[in-house]
Specification:
The structure is a homodimer of 199-residue chains.
Chain A (H helix, E strand, L loop, with lengths): L14 H25 L2 H7 L4 H7 L3 H22 L7 H17 L2 H13 L5 H19 L8 H22 L5 H15 L2
The structure holds a DNA duplex (30 and 30 nucleotides).
Chain lengths: 199, 199
DNA sequence: TCTCGAAGTGAAACGTGTTCCTATTATGTC
DNA sequence: GACATAATAGGAACACGTTTCACTTCGAGA
């Protein structure tokens, strides 16, 4: 099925393979967390995951695929945690801001990791479109859920709004990662944008 | 003055140096336009600009600086052209959409070039913050001017709004470049976002 | 004009992502 | 258990961004 794409855990037969895949992603996150994008070196990932370089490339066709997939996994986990807690806030805007603030703070707590994942996400080309799309969907779902808690039905308008907010959030994150804005400015900018859009 | 940054044309003494710099940027744009980010290889740029590799690196400390600077130059030119023409449209939203559509169409007419410049912009790290900031300012000015034609005084709110729109535009561009959305979807998304924000 | 320092040249070398190849080890089938 | 096939290991090799260095050329001041 997937020739140019990363192997998903579902299409991995044996449990040994699933474990290998997890080890690789763990090593990726660990290295990224420690030294950012540059520290995620394919040889280092392979060694830390106790896997040959060729095997690493069999599981993930490029560094970008690897990082974007790792990003997706982290995102899924974060979303699961978020989904359990009710989101405080009376209005859509308040809830969205709460979610974004929480997520952003989480990311800013690990700048190197955020650097690696953001850069990978932005640098990805067509070949990683599938993985990127998965992350985008997660983000959109997270936001629409904050906008309408408990409601799974969302309108096209809501999705469009969530996308716009997601866009701003990503740009703000990039600006922060590249040192163009501080954490406070990032938060303020995002809050302003949300209040502008959701009113 | 600038040790880690690209040499700006102002701080270049001789005209021979200014010409070298222009040749380098021309070669960059030509290669990018022909084959995108990957085709902008430093050796190829040096050769096409008829300059030694070491010289290229003296003018631009990295491929990213080179591309972002080239992007800034293209942007300045585009903005000059835009500035001469009055912008059609009765409302702020209409005018902003006109500008964005025009600019986007221009970019989409040269997908490879857009690929190269967008990826460089998004991938840039702290060391290119200055060049990135220059592009951001240009973009913001372009948008505020579309919002309030003929008025040079803009409020903080206007700048914030322009930033948000710029964020969305960049994200949309990235999505288009990475093949996640078509040109039509990109245009529609942008228009929707602008009408959402400017109302 | 001569001299000196800065700028440019040309080429080698290094680091890291990626590819490729052969030997070895698992895994499933008869 | 023996075999066929796929997966993995281990490592060399290649591409391109980047650095380095020895040498040459240029340009401004004595």
């Amino acid at each position: 099925m997937s020739s140019t794409n990363a192997l998903t855990s579902e299409e991995l037969g044996s449990s040994a393979q699933r474990e290998r895949r997890e080890r690789i992603l763990d090593a990726t996150i660990a290295l990224a967390s420690q030294g950012g994008f540059d520290a995620v070196q394919m040889r280092a990932v392979a060694e830390q995951a106790d896997v040959a370089l060729g095997t690493l490339y069999r599981y993930f066709p490029s560094k970008i695929h690897l990082l974007v997939t790792a990003l997706a996994r982290e995102f899924e986990r974060a979303e699961k945690v978020l989904a359990t807690r009710a989101i405080s806030g009376d209005t859509s805007a308040d809830r969205v801001i709460t979610v974004l603030r929480r997520t952003t703070r989480g990311l800013q707590g690990d700048p190197h990791l955020t650097d690696a994942l953001t850069r990978a996400f932005m640098f990805a080309d067509k070949s990683a479109a599938q993985e990127i799309h998965a992350v985008g969907m997660l983000l959109t779902r997270m936001l629409t859920r904050a906008m309408h808690p408990g409601i799974d039905e969302v309108s096209d308008d809501d999705i469009a709004i969530a996308r716009v907010i997601g866009d701003v959030w990503l740009s703000a994150l990039v600006a922060w990662v590249t040192g163009r804005s501080t954490a406070e400015e990032t938060a303020a900018h995002m809050e302003r944008a949300v209040r502008l859009i959701l009113r």
